[in-house]
Amino acid sequence: MAQISQHALETAVKQYRDPYLGKDLYELGAVKSLTADESGKVTVMIELPYPSKGIAGALKELLTNALDDVEGVESVDAHVGQRIHSHKGQKDIQSVPGVKNIIAVASGKGGVGKSTTAVNLALALHAEGARVGILDADIYGPSIGMMLGVPEGKRPDTRENKYFVPMEAHGLQANSMAFVVTDKTPMVWRGPMVSGAVMQLLQQTLWNELDYLILDMPPGTGDIQLTIAQKVPVTGAVIVTTPQDIALLDGKKGIEMFRKVEIPVLGVVENMSVHICSNCGHEEPLFGHGGGERIAEEYDTTLLGQLPLHMTIREQTDGGRPSVVAEPDSEVARRYKDIARRVGAELSTRERNLTGSISSVSVTEH
């Protein structure tokens, strides 16, 4: 049997360009091994740098077909996995034990679906193969517990009377001020108390080897938000907005705030981009059109995705089973998973934190 050309194999693999990073697998450093034995069997090992379970099967098939066409190849054994690295937060802020990356989900104003986006993004990252936690930093209006279906009144376990054990819900590790106070306790706190409470929740929770911790920020861009952004080692931020001009204006303030404290903005999620009629399916842009694209272009960031204004998103989230887990194969869930891959891919291009914890590896397709 003629010897298989290594150059031909590598050329075949290079045909695939990553849809989120726009580079071939060699440019990404994703090809861990590519070998051929005397029987004509080719084995390829791929590790993508972001949560990618949803595209692993398609990538495996594309690689198999491309390598099958190389002269002398009799069979192909393709393995596609992922390796999530720890990336740097702001200067001189100590990383949180058990957490590789913290992603802040923020909005310039309330009422744009920030918490719904935060929860579904966390669930989508988990569905794509990452270890994920969520911290409800929205002290005045904590809603993550209800959205994740955590029973009212349930309290987290503690260790040594000092540390919280995060709640488990739909595969996520979660903590919230709502878990340690009752609904009837109004948070009549000044700014320093709020940021102090967030830091306490963050640092005194026993996070267990998280690839990503989603931080659901309080809405707005005031002193509380700025203080949290300065004290928490955030590796990237996601801005949630709607197409309305006033929401876009506030979204811009959010981007400016993160830039001020040197936190990279990974992109913008445009919520309520179109209204879908629950009776006839007709789509109409009630709040305007193209706002998310304009703000992303103006600030040289990415439009991560657009979510429709649809009753089922609210109903499912209010019922404790957000769209990504309630209907994992729906168009809405597909959009959230696409956003999750974009967020992970964008973060993978940032400077690594070499003092952080060891990268996790998971093989998702054999």
Automatic annotation (TrEMBL):
UniProt entry keywords in alphabetical sequence: ATP-binding, Hydrolase, Iron, Iron-sulfur, Metal-binding, Nucleotide-binding
MIP18 family-like domain residues: 8-77
Signal peptide as annotated in the record: none
CDD domains: Mrp_NBP35
Keyword ATP-binding: yes
Sites where the protein binds ATP: 108-115
The family this protein is said to belong to: Belongs to the Mrp/NBP35 ATP-binding proteins family.
Oligomeric form and interacting partners: Homodimer.
Known role: Binds and transfers iron-sulfur (Fe-S) clusters to target apoproteins. Can hydrolyze ATP.
Name by which UniProt lists this protein: Iron-sulfur cluster carrier protein
Species whose genome carries this gene: Marinobacter iranensis
Lineage: Bacteria, Pseudomonadati, Pseudomonadota, Gammaproteobacteria, Pseudomonadales
Gene: apbC
